[in-house]
Amino acid sequence: MQTDISYKKIWKIAYPIILGSIAQNIINVTDTAFLGRLGEVELGAGAIAGIFYLTLVTIGWGFGIGLQIIVARRHGENNIKAIGRIIDHGLYFLVTIALLMFAVYQWKGAEIFSRILDSQAVGQASAEYLNIRIFGLLFAFINVAFRAFYVGIGRTKVITYTTLVMAIVNVGLDFVLVFGKLGFPAMGIRGAALASLIAEISALAFFIIYTQLYYKPKKYQLFYFKQVDIDLFKRIFKVATPTMLQNFISFFGWFIFFLFVENLGERPLAVSNIIRSLYVLLMIPIMGFASAANTLVSFVIGRKQIELVMPVIRRIIVLCASGVSVLVLAGLFFPESLISIYTNDIELIKACVPSYYVISGAAILIGIGFILFNGVSGTGRTDVSLFMEIIIISIYLALTWFLANMQNVQIHQVWAVEYLYAISLSVLSFIYLKTGRWKKAEI
After folding, report:
1. What angle do CA 42, 171, 12 make, to 5 degrees?
2. Residues 14, 19, 24, CA angle at the centre, nearest 5°?
3. Which residues lie below 8 Å from residue 18, measured CB to CB, with a gap of 6+?
């Protein structure tokens, strides 16, 4: 990375992450499509259990974003050997928290879904999925550290390769395990969980091999696992803890959103699972450009070029909004065909169309909001981004609860709360960036 942050350089960092996101969403689409063929109960359970698992993973993912910001800052300062110690200390925390979360789920996990869900069938199916999927936490958290390293130094192609490995393994095993092919027993929703678990293990194996072959750990002092440095831990936690909490709150908010929707019945829940998967597809470019915003903002600050922060963010917004708009326009011409990937139930397809139109418009606004928001995080003021997320998600959930408890409410009306979230995120992030109060932040 050089200090001239052009559209080309932004794209060079973002596109491998975008390609990786495409592969990741092949996994999501495949899981949802297979579960949709099993029935609405399995489809709804896949949504609830999947988001619950992602909420746990997001704790590690959020911590990884903090690591990524610090790595990018050290990279900008050309302090290369400090990067390995940052990742090693991040792994100390990530492995510990993953094991603790696994232990807590084994202790109390069986009670979770029976207590919070109205549908006993959905609750039982959700538990069956999580009892297998939960073993993936450790592998997912270690993968987070690898991702933080590569995105932080701006070498993102490996993200594409790793996620392709996950996608190929997951899709193949879904076919084999969900319905029982090639002599394997039909495991149903448990098969989808096992396929995803093995896919995560495969991704970690690829990360390890790739790093040893192409990025010699010695250069970065990576995986030396020297004595724990308490002062370094404090600096990491100062940046990474707010991003960890912010990501947890964000995904937990989506989990609560689905609990509110579940109160409306199994059909609205099935609709929302399909819409969630399509929404995530529309957000593919957003994830790549958001990571680029985190990395590049921190990088230019490390280079002592604070004046480049806002121009970089503006360029990323232009690229992101353009990419999302193309996807939105393409999908508006044949929504039924997209939805039919997930289900062959004609009535369910028709029920999904209004909600799809709603999220199509929201996706463009979400893209702008995410770039501005990740720009705030990239400055190192992750405490500010956490405060913003708490305010916005509280209003978001309050309005969702209100709509979900109204009589005769339609599911597409509930999904309209995404506009509130997107606009609030954009406005608050832009105001803070313009104040310049982040310029004295140190990480």
Report:
1. 120
2. 120
3. 284, 285, 287, 288, 289, 323
Alpha helices per DSSP H over 117-156:
120-133, 137-152
Closest listed residue to residue 63, CA positions, set 172, 140, 159, 136: 140
Task: Output the pTM of the full model.
Answer: 0.81
Three-class secondary structure of residue 287 per DSSP: helix
| Helix residue spans in 153-216 (DSSP H) | 157-179, 189-214
Tokens of 114: 């029976």
* Amino acid identity, position 100: L
Q: How far apart are CA 410 and CA 424, in angstroms?
A: 23
How far lies 229's CA from each of 79, 226, 364, in Å? 17, 9, 43
The two tokens of residue 294 are 């985190």
Reference 192, options 23, 44, 50; nearest CA is 50
Q: At a CB cut-off of 8 Å and minimum separation 6, what does 411 contact?
A: 261, 264, 268, 271, 272, 351, 354, 355
Grade residue 433 by pLDDT with cuts at 50, 70 and 90. Answer: very high
Instruction: Give the Cα separation of 434 and 437 in Å (integer).
Output: 8
Q: What pLDDT, on a 0 to 100 scale, did the predictor assign at position 117?
A: 66
Task: Return the axis-axis angle of helices 230-262 and 266-282, rounded to nearest 10°.
Answer: 140
Q: Which residue has the tokens 């960890």?
A: 244
pLDDT band at 105 (very low <50, low <70, confident <90, very high): confident
The neighbour count for residue 302, using CB atoms within 10 Å, is 19
CA–CA gap between residue 430 and residue 412 (Å, rounded):
29
As given in the structure block, the two tokens for residue 60 are 């590690």
CA-CA-CA-CA dihedral for 169, 105, 66, 158, to nearest 10 = -10
Given a cut of 50, is residue 321 above it in pLDDT?
yes
Question: Is pLDDT of 111 > 80?
Answer: no
Q: Dihedral of CA 169/171/176/182: which sign?
A: negative
CA 283 from centroid of its chain's CA atoms: 10
